[in-house]
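Proteins fold reproducibly. Next comes a concrete instance:

***
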Amino acid sequence: MPGTYYGKKKILNLEGGFITQKKATWSSSDGGISADYHNLNMWSIATFFDSPLDKNKGTALNAYLGYFNTDYGPGYLRYIGVMNPADGPTASATYFPGSHGNGLPMYGTGHVIYLQLGYLLKKDLIGKNNGTLMPYATLQTAKYDRLDKQMSVFNLGANWFIKGNTSKISFDYQNRPVYALAGNNLIRESSRKGQFVLQYQFFF
């Protein structure tokens, strides 16, 4: 949660925006001999809130909520896997291309809701000048046209702000769906998997 102000000030941001582009994507029903071009249309509304709860203790609440309406063209779906350990597997009749490893459907034509909540614990919780912790939870839920039902990805974790975001250790657990091809150009959830991530961030 790099957006936190560590309980120093009260912030309320409201966001709204859109983007449109002609012929941004294309598809083909004859193996690429001809192409059907599709316009890109997306809009979103969101709010960010960060506020101290107890100024003497240094506790604070951090929250973000956004709704995203995304139209990349019919049936568009894109997987993203951050530092994905999987290699490039042979094309399969069972799995959607790019879905191996820790990849999940991050972008697609449909509707997305993203929620983030964090609670900053009292200052110097770890000891004087050793920083404090911020436990957090996130939820991304999406109804993409290509999926047979609603998708939900859950994250739970904590940031150890040793020196704000200049020096930070983060621990994150993610629970995500795994999909298989279901026919009729749809993809169905076949199981769920989890992953743990431990990272250290610093910058000058």
